[in-house]
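REQUEST ID: PR-0412
SUBMITTED BY: lab tech R.K.
PRIORITY: routine
TASK: structure prediction, single protein chain
INPUT:
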Amino acid sequence: MFGINGKIVRHHFMGIYGKVVQIRELVEVIDQVFDSFHKVNHISKTMLGPRKPSAKKLDKLR
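STATUS: complete
OUTPUT:
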């Protein structure tokens, strides 16, 4: 059985903390990417206007 060394335990938890920080940063970047996609989608919809229904959809409506 080995003794618990405070330095080893602190090093272990600092490693875990570092990974948590990296994951938070990754989630933040992914959130920014999706926000950018949403903004681009909104801009393109306002530039192009409403979509016209296709011929198949028009046949179903009749």
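NOTES: The CA atoms of residues 27 and 62 lie 47 Å apart.
REVIEWED BY: pending
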